[in-house]
Automatic annotation (TrEMBL):
Name of this protein: Patatin family protein
InterPro entries: Acyl_Trfase/lysoPLipase, DUF6363, NTE, PNPLA_dom, YjjU-like
Annotated active site: S45, D169
Organism expressing this protein natively: Vibrio inusitatus NBRC 102082
Motif DGA/G in this chain: 169-171
């Protein structure tokens, strides 16, 4: 697939739940410096929320949402996950404040700022096709689009229906939507990630820092266990702790029972041809998982594959593509959920410093 590069600049923002505080800090710094050369804005999950507040030029909005809404039990309650009373993640409750809270998103201003020449898109995953699609954020169905890009499988059990199809978290199929930026011809990319994906020391080799499944297990353990210690002492709620152990063990079993393709075995010439990757992903997913595991495990496999391909793309971009990554210099304090407010604010401050560093290194 031939891609015609243009001089357009794109802003690509990774999701990651409460880890989005880092990107919020970066983008608030951009707003303060009046830095916005972009004509294409792409975000996944929390990244789409951060893109929204950047387009409207409302500094502090992204941090406000993460700090004051995602930390409340009404937003995410692990007990609801255990008891299956309701969805563990109440996106419906949270997103009403995006429109009518104390610090609402200025949807009209966002549409005006975009005009007819710019696009702000949220990545969502088509449930049946297991493929990423991109919907305009500042549209009449903005509420459903933002809910869909954040609808994490297993936590938010209701798939979002838009245009007659069902959609879930964009992170299942495009954690960092750099491929889409490339498909749309925007070959100058500023990419905000929650951890470094470009390995500076390796010039001609693809750098894979850690197994995504193992990292997922560590993430879950780091976020869930302190939370359980706060709400469920050993003598009170062993069921919660037991479910946590079962979930973490299921991740390990998935890794052991399925042979994931090694990245160094993938042909290099598929990089510009993302459709070829999608076909391979769908084939592998249905062949290895669908007959033996629930859809949630199929989605985990898709996440593994897409994250690996994105890492390779960013380390070996196609000819003519320039990627400037903004990532934290050290691991973020937050996990995706269940983080303390102090950790969220510390990651926001880290993002502010990273944004200032990026701006100071721009060519004059």
């Amino acid at each position: 697939m031939e891609i015609e590069c243009t001089n357009k600049y794109s802003l690509v923002v990774q999701g990651g739940g409460q880890k989005g505080a880092f990107a919020a800090g970066v983008l608030d710094t951009f707003i303060a410096a009046n830095y916005d050369p972009f004509s294409l804005y792409l975000g996944t999950s929390a990244g789409a929320l951060n893109v929204s507040s950047f387009v409207t030029k409302q500094p502090g909005l992204g941090l406000d949402f993460i700090l004051n809404y995602t930390t409340q039990n009404r937003f995410f309650d692990f007990n609801r996950l255990v008891n299956k009373e309701r969805t563990a993640m109440d996106l419906d409750w949270a997103f009403q404040f995006v429109h009518s809270g104390e610090f609402p998103l200025d949807l009209k201003k966002g549409a005006i700022n975009l005009g007819s020449e710019k696009q702000a898109l949220a990545c969502v995953t088509h449930v049946e096709e297991m493929k990423d699609y991109y919907f305009p954020i500042f549209s009449e169905n903005w509420y459903d689009v933002l809910r869909a890009t954040c609808a994490i499988p297993m936590l938010y059990h209701q798939e979002i229906n838009i245009d007659g199809a069902n959609w879930v978290d964009g992170g299942v199929t495009a954690t960092v939507p750099v491929h889409e930026a490339y498909r749309r011809g925007a070959c100058n990319m500023v990419v905000i990630t929650t951890e470094p994906m470009i390995e500076k020391a390796m010039q001609n080799k693809v750098a894979i820092k850690a197994d995504p499944l193992e990292k997922l297990k560590l993430e879950l353990a780091r976020g869930i266990e302190p939370y359980i210690n706060r709400i469920a002492p050993l003598s009170k709620n062993e069921r919660v702790r037991h479910l946590s152990d079962l979930f973490l063990n299921r991740v390990s079993q998935l890794k052991q029972s399925h042979q994931f393709p090694a990245l160094n075995s993938l042909p290099k010439n598929w990089l510009p041809d993302t459709e070829k990757l999608k076909e391979m992903l769908a084939h592998q997913s249905h062949k290895q998982l669908k007959a033996h595991t629930p859809r949630s495990m199929e989605m985990l496999f898709a996440h593994y594959m897409n994250h690996s391909s994105i890492t390779e793309f960013m380390n070996q971009p196609p000819e003519g593509v320039t990627i400037r990554e903004i990532a934290p210099h050290k691991p973020l304090n937050c996990t995706g959920l269940l983080s303390h407010k102090d950790d969220i604010f510390a990651d926001y401050e880290m993002g502010v410093l990273a944004g200032k560093e990026f701006l100071s290194n721009l060519p004059s």
